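Hey, resending since the last one bounced:
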Amino acid sequence: MSLNRTASAALPFLIGILAGAALLTLQQVMTGGNFTFPIVSSSLFAFSNSANRSVSQHVDKPDWLTSAASIGAAHEEIRYNTDAGPVESKLNVHLVAHSHNDLGWTRTIDKYYVTAVQYIIETVVDQLEANPDRKFIQVEQAFFYRWWQQQSENMRNRVRALVASGQLEFVNGGWVMHDEATTHYTDMIHQMSLGLRFLRSEFNVTPRIAWQIDSFGHSATQASLITAQAGFDGVFFSRADYQDVANRQQEKKEEFVWRASKTLGESAQVFGGHLYWMYDPPPGLDFEDSAAPPFIQDDPLSGEVNVQKLVDLFVQRAWEQAKVTRSNHVMFTMGKDFAYTNAILWFKNMDKLIHYVNLDGRVNALYSTPSIYVDAKQHADETWPLKTGDFFPYADSPHSYWTGFYSSRPAFKRYVRVCSALLLAASMLEAAVGREALQAWGGDTDGMDLVGSGVGRMMVPDFRALDSSGGPGDREGGNTGSDSNGGAAGVGTAAAGSGGGVGAGGAGGAGGGAGNGGGAGGRDSRAASTASLGEAVAVAQHHDAITGTAQQHVNDDYTLRLHRAAQEASTVLTSALAYLILHPPPPPPLSPPPTTTNSTAPGPTRAASGANPANTPAAAATHPAAAAAAAAAAATAAGGGAVPHSPATAGADTAGGAASNEDAAAAAAAAAKAAAGGGDVSSATSTTPHRAPLEIQHTVMEGVSHGRQGTLQGTQGEGPHMNPYGPGRSHKSMHWRGRDLLVKAGEQLGGTERAEGVEEGMGNRRRLQERPKLLLQTCPLLNISFCPPSQSGLAPSKTLVVVAFNPLASARTEIVRIPVSTPSVVVTDSTHQPIPSQLIPDLLPRPAVRSFYTAAHAGVRVTPLEQQQGAMSVVFRAEVPPLGYSTFFLTAARPGAAGVATSSSDWSLGLKQQRGRNTRSKKGKGKSKKGKKKAQKDEYEEEGGEEGYEEEGQEEAVEEETQSEGEEEGEEEGGEEVEIGDGVGLGDEIVFGKVVGGRPASRVFFSKTSRGMTRAELIKPNGKAFATLAAANLSSDMLFYSSAESGAYIFKPTADGALPFRTQQRVPIRVLRGPIVEEFHRQVAPEITEVYRVYPGENYAELGYSIGPLSEDGYLGKEVVAAFSSSIQNGGVFHTDSNGRDYLKRVRDSRPDWTLSVTEPIAGNFYPVTVGAFIGDGAAQLSLLVDRAAGAASLADGQLEVMLHRRLDTVDNKGVGEPLNEDVCVEDKCYHLVVVGSLRFTVFPDSRAPPGTPPQKASGGAAAGAFWRRDHSQRLLSPLQLAFAVESTEDLAAAEAEAAEAEAEAAAAAAASTAPDPSAASVDADSASAAPKGFLWRHSLFQSAQQEVVRAGTRGSARGRAAAPPDVYQLPRSVAITTLEEVSPGGILLRLAHLYEAEEHPVFSRLATVNLRLLFAGREILKVTELSLMANRERASMRPPLTWELDDSDGSEGPEVIMGQAIDNSTLVVELGPMEIRTLFLQLTT
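The structure tokens again:
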């Protein structure tokens, strides 16, 4: 294009003279690099000879008006030449227009959208249409999706045209730009897939470039998995250590080939680049610089023409950047945070810049995108350096290490982990039942405020209709985002949720109503699904969300979004579990296969052929009240009365009532016969093999928010989050809602809607059928031992039903801990057989904390004294099948009754003692000083709160005397120590752990003198004794770093190093022992409580902690670490995981890519840990697993520490603008956040098997430690999901008997309908009635594997893994299901991940196989399509990765890469090599 202007005859000549004089100095020669450019002799202005514009004349027009009109006619639109492309002989400067739009930081998501983002997108669209040469990249799809939902079809078509032309290019494509240090790879995939599937569905495009420009350091997993394996051609970022950057610039290594996975090697390498100017424009070229924007003045009539100055600056910046990279291409990022709210400002100036720079000729400027830039680099005749590993830790100056955010807002980090686990489990169950079936059956969401757009339900393209180009043949529509008008503003409070510390990240939030149809206060009438939680979890991966680097009110908004979505997903989970329990599948058309039994859990599991494992009628009668219920039912039926708790005549006509009574008599007779030890119930007949649809009532316990501005409302029921139990209800009545278990067919809770319920062929025999309701709910505050159904529902006539769902693909045995209020409890399994259990006091967190946080989050006021008197839990081992559930029943019993939970032995030293307890004294050394002393108060009591250590009315406590004045530090204190209880012995040493069965187990040693852990061992049986496999002296303590300059991002401790909380050696301790768990408690400081847990027979121990409220004590900041010290000599080497994938080697005070100048010896050695870390010395290996992302370091040999909590009164000047000081408030009382959590640790041998050792024999040593880390990290990431219901014991037994009868009738009818003759029908009916029937209390979603041969090494019992029934398929231990969700009716998205690295384990680091036919019970797989990692295209349609030539010195070889072959549709077997992930779309029968 040329610059055109129309003027009068004389004016162009005058302008040409002025322009030539003004721009004379641009006619120069500039040399740089290998390029020399000639003098430009032509003028920078080019004028057209287009005709003058005609001006209409009026006779009476005055002369001055005519002159003005002539001047105006001379000025026509200027057109600049902007169509330049790359020029081979010049330095090409690629101008990439972008806007970095954070999904929350100093403002909430909604505020950013309303004030900036919507204008950015709209004005960019207008400006791209104004000039077809212009280009722009769009990154964050959460914002774009929200904008897209608000647009007309005309606007959408305009955008589609821009995308098709390449002017608008999507890069990265994720829902957000995720963090890379604190995110887990499954969540990274999830959020990326959400955005990429949207783009494919709407635009049929797949972004080529990953754009991680604002995350604070960069992970190996980002490069190898999220970029390379996802099919991206390159990744660009802007934050790397300042020393690394200087070294790379000196050696021209700013751009490189990134081979981050040693396992996947070259197959997962990708082109990477560090942006030279961060992601801002080069200095002096920022057109939104608020101080001095460099607008290009090229009007010759202006006295401020600056074209020459800006062209010179542009050329200077280009050559400055070219000196540190390779080839004749450089990239200028023309944008910054929330740029382009007025896009014309940027594009008009860039038009001029390109035009004049190219006229100058020294360099070539062009509009470009990252994909165009990478293509140019790939076609250049260059070799490239190789980068391995990651870019952690990140420092931008000598004393500014960005390692604090690894642990910032630990409660929120935990809550994200909890919600992610809930999302996976609920999605699995939703897929198993089917969304349509679940919603049609009873997905009641009345009374719940739902939020979220439902975007997750429609993001997968229709892979059944892919066209030849690999794109979808049609698009699926989506729901309008519920967050679209006004957004989530908060309701005065935000939710806390479970697990994340006592408060999951704080909340509170400013009030303000929500927008229309969305945000915090909008009501969404659609049925519950997991889509909202999928969206909320995706948003939480944003690099200012999960990192804890947003302002407090923004973090409150993240928490609120997660909480609301978690409520909805919990409804899905409880609904699906109840559906499966109450809806056993129909019997098979032929005789059922033989049932299987399990010695420890006789409750069978449903087989593929249709066997329905549950209780037989006889088994049901073994329930304590079964016989009585049957007898009562029989008597009632005989007398013509109504069945208790089941209104037989409600809503039915007379004939129906009579039929019901007649049917009740038959059912009662059958139940009585079963109770008396009788045989089958085949005499009852039915011609319908299916029971009528069953109902469900489900409730979700809402957590009530906290925050500096959020206060607890005094009246229950005020606002949607004030009372989780509904208006006028308390936690004591919530679980039952006044309804019995048996509800007549068609009767809806809260209404009288009738269902026809007439079964075909039944005549007058059975018109209406009883329909059980299972009132399941979740308890999100279990981490503070608060669960209303378990604590208030164990009345003598009630049964607590506990359903435990296992999201893992292998059977497991886990310790389940449930708070109860009765000291005598019996726990039974799914067959109502008692199982071992233990009753143990709840000491963590302490009563004052529990009292405060139940008020903050649940609106329930319980005094600390009441908490202390009633705080206890029952603990038992739960065996759960793979991808299935088991049900357990808790009932109150008389003390000493058969099967009652064992009470824990209790011994304490130096603790408060209530009068009347058995005590014994032991004289200490030195002078003794006896006396009674009030317990030290914590921050709650000091500020006038009633939640102190000692409450009014509590009996006086006996406390050991503190260190006497004048004693030297470390000297054993004088005075009389008080020992309370029995069971420890008189020696100094306390030993936890023992061998159970033939498996290795952990033993942990504690000392009364040191009041802490001293040693850890791994032992195994050896005849009548045991052998030690590994041992290490091991201790741990809670320490803190004092910091005056740390902030949300930066960790900058003082030179003092870690300081002890303990001012004395002999802290109070308490020991609890029993058959299931042994606990060692110690009060380290008023704000620090620890508990070490050892589970007899298990090969690990656990450190639980409660930290806070952290007092200042004269410090400007406290950063708390759990420091483990051992005798292991690791030589400065330790390993940390990379987003839960590879474990990377770290070396203290060292970096693999350059010689480190140590400026911060503490902060500079902290690395991000998502799941775990370990150290070893060839003899012993110490492994540590975390329950949330954190920072970890090994600052000395044998030492491993993890940062758990931070309280800071200073800011680090990195932009967030407020200190990291989280408060929790109830009314007018505010305290600093308390964090509750746990760490798992163990000691294993560190020996390596010599080459050539058979794999099975090489599985010990370091390989065993690797297996433990992988296995337990999966168990921590996907914990058992618990659901609770309180039912009448009598009604429960009667309902089971009735259900068993119905199942027997259905089986008999099915057998009769397919039998060739009556005698065969009789035999089949007898066989069917002998099979387990009734409620499906234990079930696996996997199909029967009776006739399948499972690969060796993939089956069998192992630690923490229950022996699955022989007809239940289990995935290999090296494979995990990371995604299982329904994306359409019968359409399942399945993602399988190999968990092991190459050479990590001799058995599990090999090719693994999965048989898809065995995954889904009773459903046939019609078609399998393999997709890309992100499920946005078929794998077969993916382009091969770009190839890059490496420098000669960078071609190091790694282990052999093993990858699975293409899926054979005849066998449907999937192969996975180490670290491989495969994504599949399965079309199943519905």
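DSSP finds 25 helices and 56 strands in the chain.

Sorry for the duplicate.
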